[in-house]
Amino acid sequence: MPYNIVMAESELQDTISWLLLQSSMAAKHRLMKTSDAHDLSLMQAFTLCLLAPGESVAMSSISELLLCDPSNVTGIVERLSVGSYIERRECATDRRVKTITLTKAGTALRSEFLQQINEIDADNLAQLTQAEAATLKALLLKTSAKPQAHKTYTTVQQ
C-alpha cells in the first residue's frame, strides 16, 4: 500500500496545481496559528486583510473577493462585529447596501496578519532571485482562477 501512495505523490509532483496546493496549505497552517490565537476562522482573517483602514466596503464586494456565497459573508461579518474588529453600517446613499469598516482593533489585527503574510512570502521566496519572484507573481496573477478578484473595488460613500 505505501508504494501506491508514493506513486500517486510522485505523479502529483509533476502538476502545478498540486505544488500550488502544497504551498498554500503550508501558508494556511501558519496563518491559522494567528487566527486561532484570536478565536477567528481563516476566512474571518482574510476578510480583515481585504479591508483598507478608514474605508467602507460593500459586503457584496467581500463575497466576490473571498469567492464565496454572500450568505457566508454575513456570518463572517457577524463574528467580526461581535469581536469589535469591524463595524457594519447601511450605506447612506443606498440602504439596501451593507458596508463594513475596520475598527482600531481590526486595523491592529489586520496589521498582524499582513506582517505574517509578508514573513511567509519572505520564507517561500528566499531561494528565488528578485526576478524569479517577480515572474512567479506575474504568472500567478495571470493564471488566477478569478481575475476579477484582482480588480480594485470602489469604496462606498457614507
Largest sheet: 3 strands, antiparallel
Q: H/E element string?
A: HHHEHHEEHH
**CATH superfamily, please?**
Winged helix-like DNA-binding domain superfamily/Winged helix DNA-binding domain
Task: State the distance separating the first and last CA atoms.
Answer: 61 Å
CATH architecture: Orthogonal Bundle
- Beta-strand fraction estimate: 5-15%
Structural class: mainly alpha
Shape, please?
elongated
Low-confidence stretches: 149-154
CATH topology-level name: Arc Repressor Mutant, subunit A
Strand order of the largest sheet: 1-3-2
Measured as a percent range, the helix fraction is: 55-70%
Radius of gyration based on Cα positions:
18 Å
Number of domain modules: 1
What is the CATH first-level class name?
Mainly Alpha
Q: Taking all residues together, what is the mean pLDDT?
A: 85
Quaternary state reads single chain
By DSSP, the count of extended strands is 3
Give a verbal description of the structure.
- With 158 residues, the protein is mostly helical.
- 62% of the residues lie in helices and 8% in strands.
- A three-stranded antiparallel beta sheet has the order 1-3-2.
- Helix 2 packs antiparallel against helix 6, helix 3 crosses helix 5 and helix 4 packs across helix 5.
- About 4% of the residues have low confidence.
SSE arrangement:
Layout: H1 2-12, H2 16-37, H3 42-50, E1 57-58, H4 59-66, H5 70-82, E2 86-90, E3 98-102, H6 104-125, H7 130-142
Antiparallel strand pairs: 1-3, 2-3
Helix pairs in contact: 2-6, 3-5, 4-5
Quickly describe the structure.
This protein has helices spanning 2-12, 16-37, 42-50, 59-66, 70-82, 104-125, 130-142; strands at 57-58, 86-90, 98-102.
